[in-house]
Amino acid sequence: MGMLIIGNHVSPYARKVLVALDHKGVEVEIDPIVPFYGTDAFTAVSPLRRIPVLIDGDLVLNDSTVIAEYIDERWPDPPLMPKGAADRARARWMEEFADSRLGDLLIWRLFYQRTVVPSVWKREPDEALIARTIERDLPEALDWIEARAPAEGFLFDHVCTADIAYACFFRNAALVGYAIDAECWPRTAGWIARVGAVPAFAASMKFEQAIFGVRSADRRAALRAAGARISEQSYGGAVPQRSLMLGDGPRD
After folding, report:
1. What is the mean pLDDT of residues 78-94?
2. Which domains does the chain possess?
3. Which pTM was predicted?
4. In the 3-class helix/strand/coil scheme, how is the chain assigned residue by residue?
5. What pLDDT, on a 0 to 100 scale, did the predictor assign at position 120?
6. Which residues, listed in sequence order, are joined to residue 6 by a DSSP beta bridge?
């Protein structure tokens, strides 16, 4: 059995891993589930009921950062981390800010509200939360990013996992109509555009477009038609379930 990634290109965390694998030329099978529809078997390999999950023989890994570092260590060329202890620490911190702060703002407060809440949980989005996020919280985060974004190229001397992480989150924001204001945050807008043009990231777009807005049950066929290698077996089911993380699923 080859390597399996449970996750899909619409998830910024799963996309980070899939772009990393493609950048290194590693072939992988995908089980493109929406985590809310994961079965009990999914819970067994993802106790927080989140994607991505990497299954490589007997090895099962959760968390996109852990998986990306495993990929970079197993297939070191081309590298996705900078050289030197200080730069590697900076890269990890930049990636953590994206995964934590942008995950909260762009995914849970914006993308999740605009897509998952109405489609999966059959509720109206929290428009007050969305407005507060766009008008107050996102500008604060973008100010922080702008002070650290490279004026040209990438964060370090080649594209790294941290660069990919930021592009993944802002791509999700774009899917629900949010774009970085290039007049207010020119360095950030330019940087994200450059990462988006990296071949492995650009290639992810066709898979994202194949499944965005498509029913969970139809995603496997849609991705297969787009050229993805889809696993024969799936960890997905038909009934949505809560995860263990605050904010997931319907209100009790």
Report:
1. 97
2. 4-78+204-225 (3.40.30.10), 85-199 (1.20.1050.10)
3. 0.93
4. CCCEEECCCCCHHHHHHHHHHHHCCCCCEEECCCHHHECHHHHHHCCCCCCCEEEECCEEEECHHHHHHHHHHHCCCCCCCCCCHHHHHHHHHHHHHHHHHHHHHHHHHHHHHHHHHHHCCCCCCCHHHHHHHHHHHHHHHHHHHHCCCCCCCCCCCCCCHHHHHHHHHHHHHHHCCCCCCCCCCHHHHHHHHHHHCCHHHHHHHHHHHHHCCCCHHHHHHHHHHCCCCECCCCCECCCCCCCCCCCCCCCC
5. 80
6. 31, 53
